[in-house]
Amino acid sequence: MIIGLDVGGTHTDVVLLGEGGLLKAAKVPTDDSDLFRTVLRGLTEISEGIAPPSIQRIVLSTTLTTNAIVQNKIPPVGMIVSAGPGIDPEYFRTNASYYAVSGAIDHRGREIEPLNPGEITRIARQFQREGIRHVGVVSKFSIRNATHELQMCEILRASFDKVFMGHRISGNLNFARRIATTFLNTAVYPIHKAFYRAMQKSLSTKGLMLPIRILKADGGNMKFEASMDFPGQTILSGPAASVLGAMAFCAEKADTLVMDIGGTTTDMAVLIHRDPVLNPLGIELGGYKTLIRSLETLSIGLGGDSAVKLVNGELQVGPERSGPAMAYGGPQPTPTDALRVLGDLKTGDHAKAVRGLKPLAQALGLPVTAVAAQILAISSQTILSAAQQLIDRINGKPVYTVHELKEGYVVRPKTILVLGGPAPYFARHLAQLSNYKVIVVPRWQVANAIGAALARTTCEVTFLADTERRVAVAPEESFSRRIPADFDAAAAEQTALELLREKAIARGANPEHMETEVLESMQFNMVRGFSTIGKNFRVKVQLKPGLIQGYNKVIAQLAQGAEAHEQGAGR
Amino acid sequence: MLRAKHRTGLVFFPAFDWAISPTHPERQERLLYTQDQIFEEGLFDIEGITEFKPDLVTLKDIQRVHFCVPDVWTVTTESHFISAGGAKTIGMAVLDQRIDRGFALVRPPGHHAMRVVHGSRGFCNINIEAVMIEYLRQAYGIDKVAIVDTDCHHGDGTQDIYWHDPDTLFISIHQDGRTLYPGSGFPNELGGVNAIGKTINIPLPPHTSEEGFLYAIQNIVLPILDDFKPDIIINSAGQDNHYTDPLTNMNFSAQGYAKLTALLQPDIAVLEGGYAIEGALPYVNVGIVLALAGVDFSRVKEPDYDPERIRQSAAVSRTIAKIGEDVLELWEQRDEIHSQIPDRTGIHERQRRIFYDTDRIFESQIEWIKACPDCAGALRIDSNSDRGLHILAVHIPRKACRACKDLGYQWYASAKPKRFDMIFMQDRTEDKFLKRPPP
Ligand SMILES: [Zn+2]
Ligand SMILES: [Zn+2]
Hints:
The complex is a heterodimer. Chain A is α/β, with parallel strands linked by helices. Chain A has 15 helices and 28 strands. Among the domains of chain A are: 116 residues, Nucleotidyltransferase, domain 5; 109 residues; 84 residues, no CATH class. In chain A, strands 13, 14, 15, 18, 21, 22 and 28 form a seven-stranded mixed beta sheet that branches. Chain A is globular, with a radius of gyration of 25 Å. Chain B has two domains: 333 residues, Arginase, Chain A (3-Layer(aba) Sandwich); 90 residues, no CATH class. In chain B, helix 1 crosses helix 9. Classes of the chains: A alpha/beta, B alpha/beta. Chains A and B meet through helix 5, helix 11, strand 26 and strand 27 of A and strand 1, helix 1, helix 4 and helix 9 of B. The structure holds zinc ion (2 copies).
């Protein structure tokens, strides 16, 4: 049996899945000021009466690190960056204890200026005086040559609890993002570590001795132990949980839009033939642009509880939320009230919902039902145009070869899968206003937790080989090896895939079912003068996000009763 | 946080799967390290810098500018449609005011491609700036355009296309043609009878460094631009003046290019040449982008940059000052020079031989231009290549007067099909391309 848990803004959803399907679901209120208790309560409720040994897997998607960053509740950390020529690293400052030092590496990984160890030692003493326990070190082009980061780490290691190095975070180039991401990892590390250590301890007192798995923003999970080096990867895993929850119900040979309509926001993503589209570079959070791999998502401030008001004589929905809908005792009219007024929604106080919409109706000179219909039309239209924006963004992504430009895949979803609290009520309106077929994800209220439960382990490896310098590196893996002059593309791909397998197993993947994929494999002749002096290979491989093996029955059972809304299918 | 002072757009299209030949300077690897540097510097993350995916130009866009022999498909590849398309994308974004300035960092280049195209010259098949400019004139109605070509080689293709156009000011700064391909670009090349003075050539001596280039921009180019008052300024931003470029003999630098860009403030920059792919291009391109965006570029330097080592000699400085005086004098006197032309209403003939070094083709051309006080004049070209193709091409300019338009149609209609393999006409007044015999 598997437990999946997804912490949301207002509720935390937990499910228990067995081979036969969804065995149990629970909802507990989220207490942002005490997430530990929230998660523990969810896990306790769901595992009540279940023999601990029969639970094989627990996957958690929490808002712990996300909240810490957004609310800036992070402990002081030290940052040392070495930039060399280019943009002044002062522009990339992340915090007060941030120092730019000498040392430079070029784009091919050649040292152009050595590091000054004395400088690092002096800064280390300063950090210690400030009481800093955690340090991040980043050098430009460290993913081509990590020597300077390793040297800095070596100097600092003994004096600090943990040192994070930029090259371990991602194989993607982007110095500013590498700095920001290293900073975030360093900053959330103590919170993350304390939380999961305590969680593991509490669970083991209940007899649950298995390792916790944590959901990442790219829709994959990793074992808690492996997350200690990359705690930042746990940010913004919520949208990924929803996408995975919908994934099982996507057409295999078509593109699908997934929308999670919540109380405050609607998150959307796109799947191509059941594979979620990933953000090419990394997620953005709280003003930080990062190298944290994530799904390509778009989030808008519009949900069932968004406040509806009149602005210059026109209805406006969101982006604020003032509380629950008036039908549930809230202070301001919302789309949920519109659904209640029209009778789509059967629960909640009808009279209160009508009362909420009345002032709007009077101001517009319309019957209350007409205003309700308008609110839902505007909301649906806003969601649909955001979806178009997301599709345009994906299709507008620049490519760098003639082949890709001419033959590149164009995303054209025809189906929307909706989940989240108000999903079934919005589905009809979305279908009426568009040419999409709209399907409500089975068990839409807890599909996100189901997604978390069934998430695979994911990871990515970037591999570079330069036969002129006779060196191959996979920076994130701390891999660096001499290669022969006749090293070729096949060898490059093979080495990259081996490294990926190794990494995946360490992160918790099932060695029997590993769906590896070569994302990119490029080869360049390096020519100086008029002769070829070497070859440059660039390979990226990944374990795709997706659902774990062996739970097809669960999905089949869930799929029963899926409900489709097509254009004109409504009343 | 970094924020661009000017909203800046970038099309980056390195064509990682296209080369003239595997070891040719114009090969897959050319922008590889530039990509690395641009990505590592995070230029696309700077607030106010936007990356655009290139559009492809259409057949019509190319035929608006070129007479391709025997046809467009034969002398181009898809990559040419994309690199010209990248320039067009930037041009549209600027004129739609989505950005203030833009840079098409694309390959293959275009500034050696002339109006008639039998093949590839100086690595260029179609003139990507001209294709963009004529599209922008057609779609947005812009009129006066200035092109400042800062590639190390004379922009002879662009010069040829705009030779007769009084509304296009073409300024080329390049290494002296006596010492470098294509061997042209001297101050006395002033433009045709209807556009005297609108072609400006500033040949610089070998070993010119920052001082000389910036002197030329400040003291020659900027005053002329002030006078001309273009609607937009295009920079053909070749980067082969770099002190490490393998094909040339200049001493320019990343700092120099960035300062040049900051002085010139082009609306649109388009990459041309530049073949020091590791030691120069990564830094020069970052410098240009930051300068366009109005972001601090003071630390963008090549690892081996040493301004003392590349400083130009006093003799070079004197030569440049003298060239500057000559060029400015010619600019001041352009109306007078025009008035001294004996026949200011007749038809002027010019004969040329053009060598396509990349494809090893020889072309012989005779050109007739109607000297006209009212427009850019009807143009007729008889072109014959040693590949055995003989064409007649007629160009009716964008703002042709009635008489020149009639003359163009008369030339086109009266051409003897037996004498030519193909007869072409561009009627820019109606944005039409005609061909006899019809396809
Ligand atoms: Zn050149
Ligand atoms: Zn005329």
